[in-house]
Amino acid sequence: MKPDELQSEEKVTGDVIGDTAYSERFVLKILLKLANLDTLKDEILDQAFEEDLCTLWDMTAERDVVLFLLQHDVLNLLSFAWPIIETPRIAEIVVGIIANMCCQKEAVINLLKLVPFVKSLVECIKGNDSLILIQLLRLINSSLFLASSDNIQIWLRLFIEVGYSKHLFFILKNSSQKDLLINALENLNTICTYCNIEELWSDFFGHFVSVEALESVIIGYIEIAEKHRDLCEKEQFERILLISIQIILNLVGFDKSVSIFNDNKNDALKMITITFQYYENKLVNCKEIDMDLVDIVDSTISVINALKINEISELDDYFMQSYKMWKTLHYMVDDQQVTENDYEDLVNVSKELQTSLSTLMFVYMETCNEDNLLKALDEINDDFDDVASFIVNKGILNLVTERVSTYRTRLKEIVDC
């Protein structure tokens, strides 16, 4: 039964929850059934009870409903009912209800007053029911997003106690289900965002930074990019491209990262190549400008420098895509018939993107081997000075300019002859 289909007798004057049209009486009936542990096992088998729980799940999208449930100590109630719930569908619904509730800060605070219960929920990461796993990942994402620094420390401790990372990496490496993979990547990105902080670096590094971590992210990423791309919404797929490189950046940002990931350069390079091929098509062929590309390029530069990827990179891995995008931006402004305000916005956006792409190309030319350097200069040719004009870092500008000076002088002499 959907919330808007609740029978009229459930909605009487003074019976509604907050500013919603939902019935207090309807919710209280469910809570009473959950509280009666002697009959709960039988209730769980009743299709009508399952449907009522589903309705409550939908209702928890409303803040007023969540506050009403907290007023009636529903999290504590669910903690007592949880050991009795053995049906996967009911478990999914219960975790989903808590996940929805944790979109409200009050629920996040109250949930962590029940640490043993939270730990038993986190233990679900060891299961193989994808629907339960998706709700668990949602629950954790919402909780970390709203948690205080002290509460994040509690979550990280629970992750370590449960051995959470091992099971999360297993999902990323072995699952073929699109929705589960997307939620797992979102979950790891959220953990990297909120747990990879100075006061927790040691614990985060010890539990989440490993060869298996990087391998699992790349395997999950490639599974989505190569097998599920057509099933993803455009915004959803581009979100995966962005957060995947951000996860890798978090993993390689430690002093020991170079030695840990020394054998994973090719895997990281493959991920970068797929991402740049996508955005090359979007910008060069479709003429669509995406500001997320700035973050992706800047993150890629950091990853490349950390892992020294240019030692194994060929021009077609990302340099040529970067140059083609840079060149498209270079001439796009003159080709656009736009209003004066839009023209100014286009110029500013193009400049920011060109700056990032120019920096990436110079990072490549700074450390690539001699043959690839010559090939790169052959490709950009007369555009070299224009590309250089966007470089903000004078150190890399001088290093590359000095490195290419001999070749460019020789090339000019050949042309003049």
What does this protein look like?
It is a single chain. The protein is an all-alpha fold and 417 residues long. It has 23 helices and no strands. The chain has helices at residues 24-35, 37-44, 47-59, 63-71, 74-81, 88-101, 105-111, 115-122, 130-146, 149-162, 164-174, 178-195, 201-208, 211-227, 234-251, 257-260, 265-285, 292-307, 319-335, 340-367, 370-380, 384-388, 394-416.
Defining key terms:
mainly alpha, 417 residues, 0% strand, 23 helices
Topology:
Blueprint: H1 24-35, H2 37-44, H3 47-59, H4 63-71, H5 74-81, H6 88-101, H7 105-111, H8 115-122, H9 130-146, H10 149-162, H11 164-174, H12 178-195, H13 201-208, H14 211-227, H15 234-251, H16 257-260, H17 265-285, H18 292-307, H19 319-335, H20 340-367, H21 370-380, H22 384-388, H23 394-416
Helix pairs in contact: 3-6, 6-9, 8-10, 9-12, 11-14, 12-14, 12-15, 14-15, 14-17, 15-18, 17-18, 17-19, 18-20, 19-20, 20-23
